Amino acid sequence: MSRFVPSRRLLGLQAGSLLLGASAARWLTEAQAQTRVQRPSTKTLRIAAGGMGSLYYLPLTAAERLGYFREEGLNVELLDFAGGALAMDALRNGDADVACGAFEQLLEQQALGFECRSLALMGRTPQMAVATSLRFWPRKALSSYRDIRIGVSSPGSSSQFFAKLWLIQEGLSPDAVEFVGLGGGVNALNAMRQGRVHALSHVDPLITLLEQNNEVRIMADTRTLKGSQDFFGGPMPGACLYAPRSFTERRGSETQALANAMVHALKWMQTAGPSDLARIIPMQYWLDDRGAYLSAFEKVRETLSPDGVMPGDGPATALGALARLRTSQVAPKVNLSLSYSNEWVRRAKQKFQL
């Protein structure tokens, strides 16, 4: 019986094949590992916000209701708080993974040692207005009146920040008034109508509803690009989707997915009409007046970011506004370049051809 004896050349070929197979297997394993890292997590991602019923958070509502987060492979849970300061607290305490809120809060938090980055800008202005009650606002000089109460969403929120800036602009000390946290919606509406507060610093649709009923006088208004430019002296960023630095560094694929969903929603909103909004807006957000809501939307539409990009001089404007609230008029020491990045939205813009 003959026995097959492999030649030296054949043995070399077999060894080479084994090495090639091992290399291919190793390359495949590494590629699969990279794919797993890049794929968004299937676990629930908690997003904190402070008053989902307002137009301020409409891009977030749209992204969730239209299924854009789900399209990006994200399973999100929206946590609604009375105000943006409470949403930030939830993020700091680990009760939320990311949040939506006023950009200037990111600068304040960085100065305190908690670094967050804006992933996508939702509003090109704060969309805030100070409205005084025609029935309850004092007719004599405000400086001589000691019991003024101004309603805000929550203490420490962007609505209180805006009210303080307005008071300083009027030559008054913010310490001379009482700020009352009201949340939003019906509670804030009733507080104004019942005289529990003399004024509101708030966002739409609440302000427009009071305006259309001739119940208030507008004292300061950033619901238009011009109004915001006049008040702040430059482009003032409004609401943004943001995350702690640790999140963006460890969960890169989810960070990009979040930016994608938000940019997709902002693109949709550029052409959305009344029937489109009626399809996605929960009934309780209308405040029993669909007409006022739609009117408010048309007013603030121009302030919505078309693509999520942070303007280059926006962060400096926000820092300047923070300085105005300090006795020393000196801005907190922060690194503006660490407060945002446009890289995520640039990639999202390429995806959605913006």
UniProtKB/TrEMBL annotation:
Protein keywords: Signal
Family in the record: Belongs to the bacterial solute-binding protein SsuA/TauA family.
Organism: Diaphorobacter ruginosibacter
Protein name (database record): ABC transporter substrate-binding protein
Superkingdom classification of source: Bacteria
PANTHER family: ALIPHATIC SULFONATES-BINDING PROTEIN-RELATED (PTHR30024), TAURINE-BINDING PERIPLASMIC PROTEIN (PTHR30024:SF47)
Any one of the GO CC terms: periplasmic space
GO BP annotations listed: alkanesulfonate transmembrane transport
Record's subcellular location: Periplasm
Primary location: periplasm
A Pfam short name: NMT1_2
